[in-house]
Amino acid sequence: MATYDTQVLLQHLNDKWHGVKCPLCQADKWNVSDNVFELRQFNQGNMIIGGVPIVPVIPVTCSNCGNTVLVNALMTKAITPPTNKEA
Ligand SMILES: [Zn+2]
């Protein structure tokens, strides 16, 4: 069970990628993660909860070589933007 709308993501990839092959190995089979991950602003190794920019990403991995593309989950509209301005 994915934690985001996989149909929206797949439609986004179909619209934007047009069946693109992996740029590293030329395979054409991608796997999308079931989960959304986040890129957190680096802060000299100190973990700060809240108040720092976070980029939600969905890993899309080449099933042949493992090359992984991080797609911004907000741009795909597969998740709804957070409404909490503190987050
Ligand atoms: Zn590949």
Q: Care to describe what's here?
A:
With 87 residues, the protein is an alpha+beta fold. The chain has one domain (6-76). 18% of the residues lie in helices and 24% in strands. It has 2 helices and 4 strands; from the N terminus they run αββββα. It has helices spanning 6-17, 73-76; strands spanning 30-32, 37-40, 54-62, 68-72. Strands 1, 2, 3 and 4 form a 4-stranded antiparallel β-sheet that branches. Strand 3 (54-62) and strand 4 form a beta hairpin. The longest helix has 12 residues, at 6-17. The mean pLDDT is 91. Zinc ion binds next to loops.
Percentage of residues in helical conformation: 10-25%
Number of helices, counting only DSSP H or I runs of 4 residues or more: 2
What's the overall geometry? globular
The topology string of helices and strands comes to HEEEEH
The assigned structural class equals alpha+beta
Gap between N and C termini, in Å? Answer: 25 Å
Overall pLDDT score: 91
Question: How many domains would you count in the coordinates?
Answer: 1
| Beta-strand proportion | 15-25%
Rounded to an integer in angstroms, the radius of gyration calculated over CA atoms is: 15 Å
- Chemical compounds bound to the protein: zinc ion
Largest sheet: 4 strands, antiparallel
